[in-house]
Amino acid sequence: MKALLLAAGYATRLYPLTINTPKPLLPIAGRPVLEFILDVLRPIKEIDEIFIVTNERFFRDFQAWNDKFSYPRKISVISDGTTSNENRLGATGDMEFVIEKEAIRDDLLVMAGDNLFKADLRPFVDFCVSRRPSVTLGLYDVLSSLLAREYGIVSLDGNNKVAEFLEKPLRPPSTLAAMCLYFFPRENAGVIKEYLNSGTPKDAPGYFLEWLYKKEAVFGYVFKGSKWFDIGDKKSYEQADKTFRGEE
Asked: What are the angstrom distances between the C-alpha of 136 and each of 27, 98, 110, 181, 236?
């Protein structure tokens, strides 16, 4: 199994914090966001290599961090060659870029580089494997219909199959938010390329999921008893920092 961390965004909503520092390398409780994500991945023994995809602007920052960081698996930093928010490939475009460049044919676990949470990932991985060859996504209950308007929202049937997916709905059918955590079994490795060839948007993964669940079975795993932070602005960044420092 391979893991891919998406870190090629420019995080303009966090300016000026991210003008010269990529969001995944911003400090949370004294450590880069990225290291907390790698802590979550560490117990999953099936993962034999981790790829971090970034842009050309921050490529050297990630390389410098990786040179000093000690981890039990190989970490490879890859530049997608983009230089600004205007020519970025988008999250789905970056997934396919790395799959093709590295000729990945193993199971693939994908996480956003700003997807900060404390949880045991083992039950999620076991669930994913049990649902192969289907794609599985991680879900978090935000417990608020008002807050749910800000996310891709999922409704599940009794078998944890995605029954509906809506990107930032005005009237959310549930409060289960997609976490930008995905499992692609090797049997279904070509589904991202198929989506991109259909001419649909490459950026927000929600558009991909909205397309996919209508085409084939997609499953959702709900994380319980953990806190999740989608660090999109200064307020969420400060809240995450306080939580991981144990101040709230």
From this structure: 30, 19, 11, 8, 26
pLDDT per residue over 118-146, tens digit each?
888 999 999 999 999 999 999 999 999 99
Q: What is the pLDDT of residues 85-118, one digit of tens each?
A: 888 888 888 999 999 999 999 999 999 998 888 8
Is the distance from CB of 44 to CB of 1 less than 8 angstroms?
Answer: yes
Taking the C-alpha atoms of residue 105 and residue 220, their distance in angstroms, rounded to an integer, is 23
C-alpha distances out from residue 190 to 134, 185, 197, Å = 12, 10, 11
Cis peptide before 16 (omega within 30 of 0): yes
d(CA 61, CA 18): 12
Residues 6+ apart with CB under 8 A from 95: 4, 6, 110, 192
- Rounded CA-CA distance 3/109 in Å is 5
Structure letter (DSSP) for residue 135: E
User: What is the C-alpha to C-alpha distance for residues 169 and 154, in angstroms, rounded to an integer?
Assistant: 10
pLDDT in tens, 18-60: 889 999 999 999 999 999 999 999 999 999 999 999 999 999 9
pLDDT for position 77: 97
DSSP structure class, residue 161: B
The H-assigned helical ranges of 12-170 are 33-41, 59-68, 91-101, 122-130, 145-148
Residues 76 and 18: their CA atoms lie apart, in Å, by 22
Q: Are 42 and 119 in contact (CB under 8 A)?
A: no
Judge whether 45 and 73 are in contact, CB under 8 Å.
no
